[in-house]
Amino acid sequence: MYFDLLFILLPLVFGYLIVVSSEAWLHRVNQYCGYMVYFILFLMGISLSLIDNFSENASQVIWHAIAFIVGILTANLIGLYGLDRWHRQRIQKVRDVKIDKLPMIIESVSLLGVVALGFIIGMFVSIEKSMIDTASEWALMVLLALIGISLRNSGIALREILLNKSGMQIAVTVMLTSWLGGVAAAKIIGLPLIHGLAVSSGFGWYSLSGILISDGISPILGAVALINDLGRELVAIFVIPLLINAKRHSAIGIGGATSMDFTLSIIQKTGGSDAVPIAIVSGFILSIMAPLCMLFFINF
User: Among 53, 46, 223, which residue's Cα sits nearest to residue 121?
Assistant: First the structure.
């Protein structure tokens, strides 16, 4: 477990120590993050093709993923609704904004397309599994280093995190309710509860959860984790505009770790500038905690 923890922390810390003053270079870092995500998912697709009789398990993967999506998001919304009720925050209504959701949906679905492409190539090209595993590990280390750089240069300081109580409360609520939903889903579909906790600890970080759980538990469960976290992203695209004016904590929290990147633009456009710091802090905390929690439960 300690080696795995160092495997995650060292590239993250290394990247976090790098300060990028040039906007052009920071843009490149974010671009390379996207490229590495696609590369890792492509390798994951090849790994799935190397599993004996995977096609026979495809329906099981989909059923398990649906169970986790429903269980986790339902628990999230109940917990976040309670947080909204507790705050009883008066929110100034932002004017209705029309958002073109189609490009975002296409981007999310395209990630599954990359996995499918890797799977198809793996079916017809002879590739050593050890080579894919090694490439996945190195690619993940590069991605984590780039994520570290991105987090360091996101403009958010530790002091801001500690002072932003709403962001911290959302992150803690999402974590606790995700675990409850994951345990409930695992119980229903007959998986070990510890596996349910591991899958539910992705908090929306699909590229990381898929590869970590594939390596630590099984590629099939890694596919479940990937679909589960992509499902959160797709649901968030539709739910955030509906909830942001009445239930701000619920709207921000449903995006999980994506609230500081992928879904941040929706939060900003529909919730106003006041919602942005809360979303960034919440997403930042969940992004840091996701790999640590997954590794803990994988090696428990």
Answer: 46
